[in-house]
Specification:
heterodimer, A: 232 residues, mainly alpha, two-stranded antiparallel sheet, 7 helices, flat, B: 431 residues, alpha+beta, eight-stranded mixed β-sheet
Chain lengths: 232, 431
Amino acid sequence: MNICKKCGVELDINMNYCPLCGYKTTATSEEPLLSKIETYDFQELSDNQKRKVFWDLSLIVLLVGLFTSTIIDLIINKNITWSRYTITVGISLVIHISLMVFLHARVISLLISGFITNSVLIVLLDLMNKSIDWAFTFGIPLLLAFYLVLLVVSLIIKKTKQKGVNIIAYILLAIAAAGICTEGIMSLHMHKTLSFHWSLILLVCIVAISAILLFIHFRLKRATDLRKFFHI
Amino acid sequence: MKGKGFWYPLDNAAKIFPAVINDEFTSVFRFSVVLKHKVHIKSLFAAVRSIESRFPYYKVFLKKGFFWYYLESARFLTPVVVDSKLPCRRFDKEGPLLRVLAGDNRISVEFSHMLADGGGAQEYFKTLLAQYFLFRGIEVPPSFKYKKPSGQPDPEEFEDAYNRFFKENIPVNTKRPKAFHLPFPLNRKPRLGIITASVPVAALKEKAKEKNVNLTIYLAAVYFYAIQQIFEDPGLPRRKKKTGKISVQIPMNTRNLYHSKTMRNFSLFVMPEIDRRLGHYTFDEILKTVFHQMQLETDVKLINKILSRNVGSERNMIIRAIPLFIKNPVLRMNFKKMGCSQYTGVLSNLGGVIFPPPMAEHIESVMVIPPPPNKLTKVSCGIIGYNDQITITFGNITCSRELEKHFFRFLTGENIPVSIIYNRNCHDEYL
C-alpha cells in the first residue's frame, strides 16, 4: 500500500505525491528530493533576500556616485560647491531605500520615517543658502500635507479588497487633496489668508472623473447587484 | 430553481453569526468518521467532486450587503485539506463555508453554522460517505438513504423555513433571567480543547428506560447534575453563585415538527432549567423536572412562540432599515446580553446514524464536534449515535476538565462503560 508519510492517507500506487498535503512519496527520506540550500539563482531567493540584494546594489551605486561627484567638484572648483546638493540628495536616497527595504510592510512607520528624513533634507537644503528661508514656512508644512494624504490613500488602498479602476480614482482624489493643501499653505503664507482658486477647479474635475471611475468599478464588480446588496 | 449564479439572505438562525464570530468563537461544527482503513484519497476527492452539484446551497460564500450579509454562489471547489490543525477553525472571509478534512483513518466535514445546522450537514456527510464507499468499491445498500448525486436539489432545500412557518400576531417570549456560568478561567488562545468518549447505546438505553425517559433527557439530566456539582463546590466564591439558575440549551430539529426539506438552518432551542437556590436536586429530581419541561417546551404552540420571537425581530422594519455597520455592534451586544447569558451550557443531540452492514464493517466510529463555545458558556457538548455506540464530545475553552470529569464519572458510576476515544488539547499542534 502506498501511504502518505505526512498525513497518513492511502494513495494510488502510481501517485508520486499526496494530493492532500503535497508530500512526495517517491522520496526515500523525509528530506526534499532536491536540496535548495545552496542556490545562487536570483529566482530562487526569497522576497526578503531579493530586497537585501537590491539594497546592497543601490547602496554601492549611490555611494560610488556620491564619491565620484565630490571628487569631480573638488578637482574642478578646489572646494565643495555644487556637490553638496548631490551629497544631500544621495544620502536622502540611501535612507529612503533603506526604509523601503526594511520597513516595507509597515506603512505607517515607513511614512513617518520618510517624513522625518525629508524634513531634515529640506532643512539641510535650505541651510546651504546660509539662512533658513523657506523650510519651515513652506517646505515642511507642504511635506506634512503630502505625507498625510499619502498615508490616508495608502491605508485605503491597503484595505481595498478588490483592486481595479477604483485605485486610480483614489489616487486622483489624493492628488486633488494635495492640490487643496498646496494652495492653502501657499496662500496662507503669501497673502496671509486662505483662498482657493486653481485647486478648486482641479478638485471639481477630479471628483467628476473619480465618480465615473468608482461607478464603473462597483457596477462592473461581479458582486454588484443592487438588489442583493441592498436587500432589506 | 436556482440557475448558475444565485444568492440568498442568511436565514434567521444564521443572521447573528457574521456579527459575532471571531478566531475563537467560529460557529463551525464538525462531523467525523473514523474508518477501519486508511482514507483512500483519490476516492475521497472523487466523492467530494461528485456531490458538489447536488448541494449547490453549500457552495456559497458570505458577502456584506448594506443592510444584511448574504450568501452568494461561488465558483470555487469544496476544499479538501489535511486534518492536522485544531478542529472547527474559522473560515476565511469571502471563502468557502464548508471544508472536507482527511488524515490517516479519519474523514471530517466542517460546516459554518451560517450554512446549515446539524440536520442539513448530516445529510451532506451521509451522501459524502456513501459516495466515498462507492468509489472505494464498497457496497452501499439501497436501504441506506442519502441524496443521490445524480438527482436535482429540491427547491425546498434552499428555503428559509423559519420565514415560511412564521406566524404573525403571536405573543413574544418573555426575557429570561441570567443563568449560572462555569467559573473556570479561559485557556490561552487558541482555546478550544476537545474530548470525546464512546458509550454503548444499549447500556444508556437501559438506564434511560429504567427512568422512563429518552436518551436526550437522560443525558441532559446528567449534564445538569454535573453542572450542579460544580455549583456546589465549596471553594466557589459567593459572587459566582449570584444566580442559582442552571439552564441548558438543547437544540431541536424543527424539521420533525414542521416538515420542511430545507438543508439550511432549521433548529430551535428549548431551555430546561433548575433553580439551585431552592436547594440541592437529586438526579431523579433533575430527571423529573427536565422531562416535564421538555414535554412542555416541545409543544408546537410554544415552539411557534419561540419561532415568532426570533423571526419577528428580524422582520421588524426599523431593525431591517438600520445599516449593517450600526447593526453589527448592536447584534454583538444583544448576543452577549440577551443570548448566551441566559443559559449555562449547550447540549446538542444529533440523533443516530445507522450504517447498514457492508458500510458499517468499514466504520470504527462517528463523532460530532459542536461549535466552539462562547466566553460565557465555556463548554459545549455534542452527541451522536452510530449503530450500537454513542459518542459524546465536549468542546471546552477553559483550563478545567471538571465538567467532563463529573459527567463521565456519573455514567461510570451507573455502570455505563465510558471509553475516551479522542482527546485533543488546544495547544497540541504547538507541542
